[in-house]
Amino acid sequence: MNIILIGAPGSGKGTQSRMFIEKYNFVQLSTGDLLRAAIAQKTELGLMAQSYMDQGKLVPDEVMIGLVDGYMTSQAGKSVIFDGFPRTVAQADSLNAMLNKRASKIDKVVYFKINPQILVKRLTGRRTCSKCGEIYHIETKPSSKGHLCEKCGGSLTQRPDDREEVISERLAQFEKSTGPTIEFYRKNGSLAEIDSEQDPEVVFKQITKILDLA
Ligand SMILES: [Zn+2]
Q1: What pLDDT score does 214 carry?
Q2: pLDDT given at position 65
Q3: What positions carry a catalytic annotation?
Q4: What is residue 83's predicted lDDT score, i.e. its pLDDT?
Q5: Which of 11, 35, 70, 153 has the fewest CB neighbours in a 10 Å radius?
Q6: What residues does 129 pair with on adjacent strands?
Q7: pTM over 0.85
Q8: Which residues contact 171 (CB under 8 A, 6 or more apart)?
């Protein structure tokens, strides 16, 4: 099963992703990680990506799709969560074409709906463990160990892009690029919307139902 999670930064995608990885053995595809790995390993696609970046250009969609294709091969048989990709209609189109060739498809696209004011609150209070990536919140999910992670003792930090001044810019950016992508999946019938202002456990159950896992 291949699913896409779409939602503004802070809509709870990351938390749900982790829950599905833990409980249903999904793997998560992060194009950022794929790109970094390809560049570090100097693969053909990695070198291509590097040459664009050296010229200060964006890595073209074909290169990204090639990386995703390679990932799908390496994870064959596993259920994949796409998080943060595709961002644009062009990418969604190319992704469909690539999956088609593999006799595969996107089974469901889950859109995390949330009120922007709640997002700002969520994001500015968010703290992430610098060691294991566990996510906390100063109001709704504080660590019992203060500024240290409950799980591994790592220090909790605020991501630079979670600062208030950066957030409104990020949200505007999200609307602009992702709005049309959401419409794309709504039209092809794979979109499911969830109210992500609810408790994460409730959201998890709803997505489980949407995916027919329970
Ligand atoms: Zn930790």
Answers
A1: 73
A2: 96
A3: 13, 87, 126, 159, 170
A4: 86
A5: 153
A6: 156
A7: no
A8: 8, 9, 116, 119
Q: What is the pLDDT of residue 137?
A: 93
Q: How far away, in angstroms, is 123 Cα from ligand 1 center?
A: 18
Residue 162 confidence (pLDDT):
85
Spatial CB neighbours of 40, under 8 Å, sequence gap ≥ 6: 46
Rounded Cα–Cα distance for residues 85 and 104 (Å): 17
* pLDDT tens per residue, range 121-140: 888 999 999 999 999 999 98
The reported pLDDT for the residue numbered 116 is 85
Which fold does the domain 2-26+79-114+168-210 belong to in CATH? Rossmann fold (3.40.50)
CB 120 within 8 Å of CB 167: yes
What's the gap in Å between 103 CA and the centre of ligand 1? 39
With beta carbons less than 8 A apart as the criterion, state whether 111 and 7 touch: yes
Quote the CA–CA distance of 82 and 69 in Å, as a whole number. 12
Phi-psi region of 148 (alpha: psi -120 to 50; beta: other; left: phi over 0): beta
What residues have CB less than 8 Å from 143, skipping those under 6 apart? 127, 136, 149, 150, 156
Peptide bond before residue 200 is cis, with ω within 30 degrees of 0: no
Measured in angstroms, how far is the CA atom of residue 200 from the centroid of ligand 1? 19
How far is the centre of ligand 1, averaged over its atoms, from the C-alpha of 153 (Å)?
6
pLDDT at 176: 87
Residues in the chain, pLDDT under 50: none
